């Protein structure tokens, strides 16, 4: 089973990096954004390939499902 | 990996929350609460250098009128007074003998950074706790970066 974790780094000056690992699709953003909101102001955001892969994969599944229903 | 967010901290809260972060943070830098603030104030400021630093990204929420919103800490003759300024931001006044303004500012900035880190740590841990997330690992790197690993699914 894939790891589903969040890594949080707090720099010596208090700047925070939140990194999600193995949390699929939008779910990762929900958790990371909730943490960002309570900490301060979001400076940058990077979505890595897994986010898009998961979304694409989900879309493919939906398309297959729709085709099967036709 | 799927998402990386970088967040600049904003210190916001009521005085008890901020002062708790200040107390914990300054102790980790060897500062101690001034045992008798009144006595410290009567020592005067003659011959002492002063430097004031404001934390721009901060807001201390107004408490009941008359509440004392000040913390005085000392280390080796250097005194730092944390307070809420007129705009509601966190301000640190540094005082010390035989130190330049630049040196006092450097020490003051170090204090502010540590307070900010402590505040952020407290907010994150409270949020994780409320969400029922389990901290599976926590480390402090040599440069004092705090690394936390969390899991809940």
Overview of this structure, please?
The complex is a heterodimer of chains A (70) and B (153). With 70 residues, chain A is an alpha+beta fold. Chain A has two helices and three strands, in the order ββαβα. Chain A has helices at 26-39, 49-69; strands spanning 5-10, 16-21, 40-47. Chain A is globular, with a radius of gyration of 16 Å. Chain A starts with a strand and ends with a helix. The mean pLDDT of chain A is 74. Chain B has 153 residues and is of the alpha+beta class. In chain B, 33% of the residues lie in helices and 39% in strands. Chain B has helices at residues 15-28, 37-42, 101-130; strands at 3-9, 11-14, 32-33, 48-55, 58-61, 70-75, 78-84, 90-97, 134-140, 146-151. A five-stranded antiparallel beta sheet of chain B has the order 3-6-7-8-4, with helices on one face. A two-stranded parallel sheet of chain B has the order 2-5. In chain B, α1 (15-28) crosses α3. Chain B is globular. The mean pLDDT of chain B is 88. Chains A and B meet through β1, β2, α1, β3 and α2 of A and β1, α3 and β10 of B.
Any descriptors?
heterodimer, A: 70 residues, alpha+beta, two-stranded antiparallel ribbon, 2 helices, 3 strands, 50% helix, globular, B: 153 residues, five-stranded antiparallel β-sheet, two-stranded parallel sheet, 10 strands, 33% helix, 39% strand
